[in-house]
Write a structure and sequence with these properties.
Its main location: membrane. The chain is an alpha+beta fold. The chain has 3 domains: 29-71 and 84-117, Helix Hairpins (Orthogonal Bundle), CATH 1.10.287; 128-239, Cupredoxins -  blue copper proteins (Immunoglobulin-like, Sandwich); 246-329, Sandwich (Immunoglobulin-like). It has helices spanning 2-8, 11-21, 37-70, 89-117, 228-239, 249-258, 293-301, 303-306, 319-329; strands at residues 128-135, 138-143, 148-151, 153-157, 162-168, 173-177, 181-186, 192-196, 202-208, 220-226, 284-285, 289-290. Strands 3-2-1-5-8 form a 5-stranded mixed β-sheet. Strands 4-10-9-6-7 form a 5-stranded mixed β-sheet. The chain is elongated.
Length: 333
Amino acid sequence: MNRWQNLWRFIPLFGLMMMLLTGCGHDTISALKPRGPVARDQLFLMKLSLGIMILVVVVVFAIYVYVLIRFRKKKGDKDIIPKQVEGSHTLEIIWTVVPILLLLILAVPTVSYTVKLSENHINDKDAVHVKVTAHQFWWQFEYPELGIATAQDLVIPAGKKIAFEITSADVLHAFWIPSLGGKQDTNVGMTNVFYLEADDADTFMGKCAELCGASHALMDFKVVSKTEADFNKWVEKMKTPATIPADAKNGEQIFKDNCLSCHAVNAQGLGFGPNLNGFASREMVAGILPHDDESIKKWIKDPQSVKPGNKMPQIPLQDNQINDLVKYLDSLK
């Protein structure tokens, strides 16, 4: 019995640790640190609704405490009933009108921003059009007007609207870039449209925000925001075929024999798996591993150990073949 009593003493410590750990994480994965106009508008709505809720709680508790003190029974008081206010027209009007006013204060900007943020900018000449397709457990990004497609790393120009068309290839997912705005569901057979914008050049974290399978928590991607000049250079590089060095030719053949049926390695290629054009320049491997040779080898040898439930098969390759394949992938810049 005493042992259980001692364990109860640790509950406040665990609670404190949980509160501290909720503040940990990547700097760009918090919706409370907006880096774009859409995220700032959404944060304003969060602050507005939270402010109204706090105001209501404070007023209700203030009245509650006042009544407890003002009408408490003192020593020597007789059992008397205070004056009843039931049926008071003044009070009835106050607690009917005030909630209506608070709802209007919340509803008007909410509806206004909801309409604004759901605008379709697909045909806007100044916007960059990106088609997003969610897969278990990776992201495909297609730039139809630019004639390129890629995966896992979404590259965008800073200061310009990015008009998204999002859908899913398998199950329900949700597209979310906390620092820039979100979230938007990706549905099979349906297309949702919305837009985002980054203030400046930086790298942001993106995630799937809908439980979609065993590796839902590992369905991450990176958003690389560049200056417009750097973005245009990136587009041209994506359209330029990679130069394969002589010592990577063996790995290229291994890739063609084992991987090309699923993975494209050209500007517009779309396949069953992620397009690997520009793979060597990406931020991460499989969206979650640091981009180095050891991570690539780990992914090729046993994809299920990295992302359980993903659809990449385990290819029976010897270590020397994997080394050659990694050398080839490192040349896809």
